[in-house]
């Protein structure tokens, strides 16, 4: 049963009340013009919680993945404001609420029970002077279809993806307009991390670069003291040991990291000048994060299919998604994250977590119409035209599995952080011995 039409002022007041309750912000401090990320410090976990509470409050359905252009236009606005939530609710007034049991399952207290490969990412401190250029990458015996190398800076296994002309995008009924049309892109060979970057490796980066200005740390991952997500930060600094992961999280993905913090790491890991992390358009060392084209190809192969393993619907044994449950409060060590070396979301090239677990930053600026532009079919295509948001791919443990489709696209401001947002890097074949 849906509510009858409500006066606009009543919808606004109810939405403000839900935001106040969900984010723990006093009602009188909120306004309809507040920006969700920049002012309220919200992330995907907050968004899912808000949508579920709004559905319950108004007895409506707010689809999270839809081809409805009106819904998509509102949901992808940058910046996204409370007034946009009001518009979403108004748009869907009169729809009938549906149960979310098929989306959200009770999260496990200790996630991660599947098969794992040995964890190779390194901790401690690395000195740039100890590395000569030809030794950045060393070969390993391969148990996957492609050659495997190990990066000396962080111990990451890197898989060499072969050059190919690949088909990107989707023309399936579930595809959104920003995934269309299916189009060819010629890609050179590249190396991509077999796993998302872990808390252990990110601490190695921080310990290796020495004393950092506070502005760098604030750019990368340090949160405002009033940001309640700080209780979920997985790394800590002590005078005796420097940066270290919290106990029990050493194989988890690094989260709550901005695009800038991911990009700085990508440059450091590839023996480049990491302090240029804001050189967003610089060539050739502007970024060693994967382009959307590289990421999508590495996720599912050269021909379109829905998920890395094919078109079959996912099962809990295949990926970590849809685990958030309404009104669950997490401690840092009980976040339902999966170890980066667990065999979930596996791509045909042997990459872990190319669906689910954590969203992953990409190099591109996100533009909804990029796949419709001529630049999208250029060799080694990536969107270098600045917008307000950077691309992210892959879905996460928070949202439903439909967001984990290999062609699903979205973006966030580069300063944004999330409890379900991490990254992986690419390396250049020119650095191979």
TrEMBL record:
Keywords of this entry: Cytoplasm, Fatty acid biosynthesis, Fatty acid metabolism, Kinase, Lipid biosynthesis, Lipid metabolism, Phosphopantetheine, Phosphoprotein, Transferase
Record-linked Pfam families: FGE-sulfatase (PF03781), PP-binding (PF00550)
Modified residues (O-(pantetheine 4'-phosphoryl)serine): 44
Compartment(s) where it occurs, according to its Swiss-Prot or TrEMBL record: Cytoplasm
InterPro entries xref list: ACP, ACP-like_sf, CTDL_fold, PP-bd_ACP, Sulfatase_Mod_Factor_Kinase, SUMF_dom, SUMF_sf
This protein's record includes keyword Transcription: no
Broad class of where this protein is predominantly found: cytoplasm
Superkingdom in the source lineage: Bacteria
GO cellular component, one term: cytoplasm
Description of post-translational modifications: 4'-phosphopantetheine is transferred from CoA to a specific serine of apo-ACP by AcpS. This modification is essential for activity because fatty acids are bound in thioester linkage to the sulfhydryl of the prosthetic group.
Gene Ontology MF: a single term: acyl carrier activity
SUPFAM superfamilies hit by this protein: ACP-like (SSF47336), C-type lectin-like (SSF56436)
Tagged with keyword S-adenosyl-L-methionine: no
Pathways involved: Lipid metabolism; fatty acid biosynthesis
Ranges of residues in domain Carrier: 6-96
Similarity comment text for this entry: Belongs to the acyl carrier protein (ACP) family.
Functional note: Carrier of the growing fatty acid chain in fatty acid biosynthesis.
Protein name: Acyl carrier protein
């Amino acid at each position: 049963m849906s509510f009858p039409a409500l006066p606009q002022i009543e919808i606004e007041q109810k939405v403000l009340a839900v935001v106040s309750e969900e984010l723990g912000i006093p009602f009188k401090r909120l306004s309809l013009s507040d920006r969700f990320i920049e002012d309220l410090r919200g992330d995907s976990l907050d968004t899912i919680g808000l949508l579920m509470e709004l559905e319950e409050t108004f007895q409506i359905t707010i689809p999270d993945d839809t081809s409805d252009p009106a819904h998509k236009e509102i949901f992808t606005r940058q910046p996204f404001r409370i007034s946009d939530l009001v518009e979403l609710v108004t748009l869907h007034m009169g729809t009938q609420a549906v149960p979310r049991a098929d989306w959200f399952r009770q999260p496990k207290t200790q996630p991660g029970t599947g098969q794992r490969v040995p964890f190779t990412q390194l901790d401690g401190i690395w000195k740039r002077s100890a590395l000569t250029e030809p030794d950045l990458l060393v070969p390993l015996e391969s148990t996957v279809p492609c050659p495997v190398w190990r990066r000396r800076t962080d111990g990451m296994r890197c898989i060499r993806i072969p050059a190919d002309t690949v088909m990107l995008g989707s023309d399936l009924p579930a595809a959104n307009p920003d995934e269309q049309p299916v189009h060819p892109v010629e890609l050179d060979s590249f190396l991509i991390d077999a796993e998302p970057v872990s808390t252990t490796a990110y601490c190695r980066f921080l310990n290796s670069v020495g004393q950092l200005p506070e502005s760098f740390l604030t750019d990368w991952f340090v949160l405002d003291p009033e940001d309640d997500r700080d209780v979920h930060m997985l790394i800590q600094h002590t005078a005796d040991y420097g940066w270290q992961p919290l106990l029990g999280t050493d194989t988890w993905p690094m989260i709550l990291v901005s695009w800038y913090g991911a990009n700085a790491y990508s440059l450091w890991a590839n023996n480049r000048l990491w302090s240029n992390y804001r050189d967003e358009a610089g060539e050739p060392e502007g970024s060693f994060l994967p382009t959307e084209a590289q990421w999508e190809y590495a996720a599912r192969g050269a021909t379109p299919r829905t998920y890395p393993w094919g078109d079959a619907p996912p099962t809990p044994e295949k990926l970590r998604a849809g685990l958030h449950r309404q009104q669950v409060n997490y401690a840092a060590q009980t976040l339902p994250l999966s170890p980066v070396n667990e065999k979930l979301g596996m791509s045909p090239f042997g990459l872990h977590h190319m669906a689910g677990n954590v969203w992953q930053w990409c190099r591109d600026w996100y533009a909804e119409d990029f796949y419709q532009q001529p630049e999208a079919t250029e060799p080694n295509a990536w969107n270098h035209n600045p917008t307000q948001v950077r691309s992210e791919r892959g879905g996460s443990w928070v949202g439903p599995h439909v967001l984990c489709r290999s062609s699903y696209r979205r973006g966030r401001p580069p300063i944004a952080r999330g409890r379900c947002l991490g990254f992986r890097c690419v390396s250049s074949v020119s650095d191979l011995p």
